[in-house]
Amino acid sequence: MLYSLIGTCKLHNINPSLWLKDVLTVINDHPINRIKELLPHIWITKQK
Questions:
Q1: Would you say which domain of life the source belongs to (predicted)?
Q2: Domains in the chain: how many in total?
Q3: Average pLDDT by consecutive 10-residue portion of the chain (48 residues)?
């Protein structure tokens, strides 16, 4: 599964290390009903 997420990062020109670092930092307090927001292609829209 992680390989797929890293592939999605690369597909969307996202640095996988930056994405993973941020997600691991916030996931513990992130609401489960909004977990899709942490997917790479959605996460990047919140970073700009």
A1: Bacteria
A2: 1
A3: 93 96 97 97 90
